[in-house]
Fold this protein.
Amino acid sequence: QVQLVESGGGLVQPGGSLRLSCAASRSIFSFNSMGWYRQAPGSQRELVATITSGGSTDYADSVKDRFTISRDNTKNTVYLQMDSLKPEDTAVYFCNARGLRLYWGQGTQVTVSS
């Protein structure tokens, strides 16, 4: 069993930045990919960004050039750097890890508002 714990969410003004962290309870080296998803009230969970074990990344069109996903295998942690935040980025952000099984964290709230 793997536990994923997200942190770094909060309230930020439009145009601001946040960095989310996803800490895994064991080595992330074996996961084929890890990713960030988000879910706004009344909406379905959607992909934000993914990163493979080889370091390849993919982003939703809505966050390209604003968000950056990265991973630190030595710290068993995946990050999501979010810049130029917009009110429409407001959501609960979830981390996942895909190996033989799919694991999810509990989520962290991000609110972008003036």
In short: Residues 49 and 59 are 4 Å apart (CA to CA). The chain has a mean pLDDT of 96. The radius of gyration is 13 Å. The longest strand covers residues 91-98.
